[in-house]
Write a structure and sequence with these properties.
The chain contains 10 helices and no strands. The radius of gyration is 16 Å and the shape is globular. The chain has one domain (about 5-175): AhpD-like (Up-down Bundle). With about 180 residues, it is mainly α.
């Protein structure tokens, strides 16, 4: 059984829409296989849900080269740092913080080991989960400059939204006391 099927079967009846959406975003995408499964893996890691990471990383390994698998993990890792930093400099009312150099190492963004657009898409998906508007704007702009249509950008956002909702639901179910 695939990891996607395992997660779909684990979802409670009230989350039927999530079950259907998880199947849809992983099987009917206009994204390339690498773009899709890199977004799935990076999004899973961004959720921090062990159950979702385990299930979806097994599926992603079947669809990604070793280099792309590592790059998707790198996108999740670097954006975990960048999203906190850039969201914070954006939220602080003193705009001077946004003009200061970050002084954070981010070399993987310049040399991710996969096509730049694919890596940008994965960073966009993680930024959506982490709620960093500044990073979302930056990655969306780069994707559009590299020829991505708004519909393809939206597909990356849909993957992030569904994977995040599945993780939130399954993690909550794991601690809820039955009524």
């Amino acid at each position: 059984m695939s990891g996607v099927d395992t997660l779909k079967n684990a979802l409670p009846a009230y989350a039927k829409d999530l079950k259907l959406n998880l199947g849809s975003v992983t099987s009917t995408s206009q994204l390339s296989e690498q773009q899709l499964w890199g977004a799935v893996l990076a999004s899973a890691m961004a959720t921090r849900s062990a159950q979702v990471i385990k299930a979806l990383s097994e599926d992603a390994a079947d669809h990604l080269s070793a280099e792309a698998f590592q790059a998707a993990k790198a996108a999740a890792a670097i954006m975990a740092m960048n999203n906190v930093y850039y969201r914070s400099t954006h939220l602080i009312e003193d705009e001077t913080y946004a003009t200061l150099p970050a002084k954070l190492r981010m070399s993987v963004i310049g040399n991710p080991g996969v096509e730049k657009a694919d890596f940008e898409l994965w960073c966009l998906a993680v930024s959506a989960i982490n709620g960093c508007g500044r990073c979302l704007d930056s990655h969306e702009k780069t994707l559009r400059e590299q020829g991505f249509s708004r519909e393809l950008v939206q597909e990356g956002l849909r993957v992030a939204a569904v994977v995040n909702a599945v993780a939130a639901t399954l993690d909550a179910e794991g601690v809820l006391t039955p009524a």
